[in-house]
Amino acid sequence: MDTTVANTGTEGKTWGGGNQPLKASYGKMMMWFFIVSDALTFSGFLAAYGFSRFKFIGEWPIADEVFTHFPFLHGVEAPMYYVAFMTFVLIMSSVTMVLAVDAGHHMNKSKVTFYMFLTIIGGLIFVGSQAWEWNTFIKGEYGAVQTKGGNILQFGEYIDVDGEQKFKRVAVADFATVQHGERTQHERKTGLWFVEEGALPAYTMAEVSAGLEAHPNVLVRTQIINEEGEKTVLSREESIRQIKENGQLYVQGANLHVNEYGTSLFADFFFFITGFHGFHVFSGVVINIIIFFNVILGTYEKRKNYEMVEKVGLYWHFVDLVWVFVFTFFYLV
Amino acid sequence: MAHEHKLEIFRGLLKFKSNTSKIWGVLVFLTIVTIIEVALGIFKPEMLMGKVLGMKMLNWIFIILTIVKAYYITWDFMHMRDETKALRRMVVWTAIFLICYLIFILLQEGGYIEGVYSSEYVKRDF
């Protein structure tokens, strides 16, 4: 046999074979490498977001003005609080997950079950919160006008707050003059059967500009960020001129084509990145539920180790880790 | 399975008695960091609006605090602290190197295109 097996002189050394140099099981290592590749996917998305933002650095929407809603508080400006709550829920469910892993190390089945259950609940609360966030974002609040060049013009007025002039947004619905129009949405049954058309905007441009002229206090705000870090507000004459000459379409809320908050790329990235993250959370919850039932059925008790809980825990923490970055780059910076 | 955990954080400044109490300790720390971030995001102190290395001081603080949070999630929740040096370096340095490269390439290009739009004869804004 000595003639067929080569002696390499590395026997007994760390990488000489026959032992586990990384002291981690195959499954755990593969989970780590999957996480590395998934982290690169997410950083690709976030870097692309950064690219578009740097490209439109002077006119990107200000997150504090976009995400101002909190459930059950209508009309109250509460930027950040809701998303801070979501972050806390996710961190908290990360904690219960790591407690489940710890209980697994001590072979404590009932504790693992309990903590896995809490983790699943936390994940569901997070996904639900994200659905609410999407819903508010898609619905929109004030409405705006898109120009021929694809820019967004928003409306507002100056009001006195403690002796200080503050710019406050005004919804188009509050000032637009409703006129009688002949234009109705084209349907296949009423005209060319092979042509379809989406729902018409709630207001025509004529209604918006007539309403603007009838309300002398309403001004237009552009996307351009001025030196104070605020969006530029136009004078009264300039406002009317902009709407009349460049205004093309009334938009409310957000979709993949237009959004009332500013650059259309902003909504695209919002949907794509938080959607991809939300999908990760959702699949994490599904995997957690599978593991939860395995724990209840005693699969790991028979196997005499709870490493599966640890592996799915790694994935769950990773989802939390990604959210920490999404939170920073979408809501803070 | 290795059951022993390293129980100290902040380079040994804080040592916990059990793994469970370390987890709660890290949670408290992460919560404090998040609260600081949210408070800064809401109040936006004027003194932090100055530019440092091409970006607002406040944004640098946000990014640094995020990396601090990411460190503690990875090291304590994902037990990276207890893994061997080789596994840790394999995962962390690979990711950090590639992500830095990606960020550099894309942000550099984004800044260049912004420059073309704002100072040269390409008009997009009307």
User: What are the segments of chain B in which pLDDT stays under 50 over at least 5 consecutive residues?
Assistant: none
Main sheet characteristics of chain B: 2 strands, antiparallel
Full CATH superfamily name of the largest domain in chain A: Cytochrome c oxidase, subunit III, four-helix bundle
Q: Low-confidence parts of chain A lasting 5 or more residues at pLDDT below 50? A: none
Radius of gyration of chain A: 28 Å
What is the N-to-C succession of helices and strands of chain B?
EEHEEHH
Instruction: Name the overall outline of chain A.
Output: elongated
Structural class of chain B: mainly alpha
What is the end-to-end distance of chain A? 66 Å
Percent of residues in β-strands of chain A:
5-15%
Number of strands of chain B: 4
Most extensive interface: pair and counts?
A-B, 63 and 54 residues
Compute the average pLDDT of chain B: 87
- The total count of helices of chain B amounts to 3
Largest sheet data of chain A: 6 strands, antiparallel
Number of helices of chain A: 10
Task: Please give the CATH class of the largest domain in chain A.
Answer: Mainly Alpha
H and E string of chain A:
HHHHEEEHHEEHEHHH
Total individual domains of chain A: 2
Summarize the structure.
By secondary structure, chain A is an alpha+beta fold. Chain A has ten helices and six strands. In chain A, helix 8 packs antiparallel against helix 10 (307-332).
Task: Give a topology summary.
The complex is a heterodimer of chains A (333) and B (126).
Chain A lengths: L25 H30 L7 H4 L14 H25 L3 H31 L4 E4 L4 E10 L2 E6 L2 H4 L29 H10 L4 E7 L5 E3 L2 H11 E5 L12 H34 L1 H5 L3 H26 L1
Antiparallel strand pairs in A: 1-2, 1-6, 2-3, 2-4, 4-5
Helix pairs in contact in A: 1-8, 1-10, 3-4, 3-10, 4-8, 8-10
Chain B lengths: L7 E2 L4 E2 L3 H25 L7 E2 L2 E2 H21 L7 H35 L7
Antiparallel strand pairs in B: 1-2, 3-4
Helix pairs in contact in B: 1-2
